[in-house]
Design a protein that fits this description.
single chain, alpha/beta, Rossmann fold, 9-stranded mixed beta sheet, two-stranded antiparallel sheet
Length: about 200
């Protein structure tokens, strides 16, 4: 078993290749934003799908594949396609192949027979670019809090953790989380973000 890079308050970070680490970790829900294959960085040379075979028996999987890869995601073994959530980025400036692509698709898979229904909740969120850490493909923290909050389960797993926004969102919501990241500099950024304490609301 790989030694954690960071471990505190129910949040764990592993530095390494998720394909090697995934068989040794377990979670209730997988929420992740894998590389898009746009060659923005060394780790972004291709859109990976082989990691899906090493997942633990989670109840649900939410993948943000990017608009270009929507038709390239295979349904993980033991799961079925359930829904597509949408995160709209207000005032976003992300350039796509046919114009600005100011929304983030989230493909959702679940175990057959399980329910992910949340009463009186919309399947779309409008988000503003807020806390955007140093990363080629960052996600707004408020959008990730909304996404994490949609799924039940104690522990969230992000196999492509990046700068740790999924883990930070889980911590803010009082959830446990596991992150895996192949680039050590992003592990360091994520650890620093997680050290910032959550202020209690009064």
């Amino acid at each position: 078993m790989t030694t954690p890079y960071y471990e505190r308050g129910g949040i764990t970070i592993y530095h390494g290749d998720c394909r090697e680490i995934l068989p040794d970790v377990s979670s209730d829900v997988v929420i992740t934003d894998p590389p898009y294959g746009f060659r923005k960085a060394d780790w972004d040379s291709e859109f990976p799908t082989d990691w899906l075979t090493g997942l633990s028996p989670s109840s649900a999987i939410a993948i943000m594949p990017g608009i270009n890869n929507l038709m390239s995601v295979p349904c993980p073994d033991g799961f079925e396609y359930r829904w597509m959530l949408s995160i709209h980025i207000a005032n976003g400036m992300t350039r796509g192949l046919m114009g600005f692509g100011n929304w983030i698709p989230v493909l959702v898979y679940a175990r057959p027979g399980s329910s992910l229904y949340r009463c009186q909740q919309d399947a779309t969120v409008v988000s503003i670019r807020g806390d955007m850490p140093s990363h080629p493909s960052p996600k707004p923290i408020d959008a990730m809090r909304w996404l994490v909050d949609r799924f039940e389960g104690e522990t969230i797993l992000d196999p492509f953790m990046g700068s740790g926004t999924t883990l930070r969102a889980a911590k803010d919501l009082g959830r446990k989380a596991i992150g895996i990241e192949i680039e050590e500099r992003y592990c360091e950024i994520a650890a620093r973000r997680l050290e910032q304490e959550v202020l209690a609301l009064v």
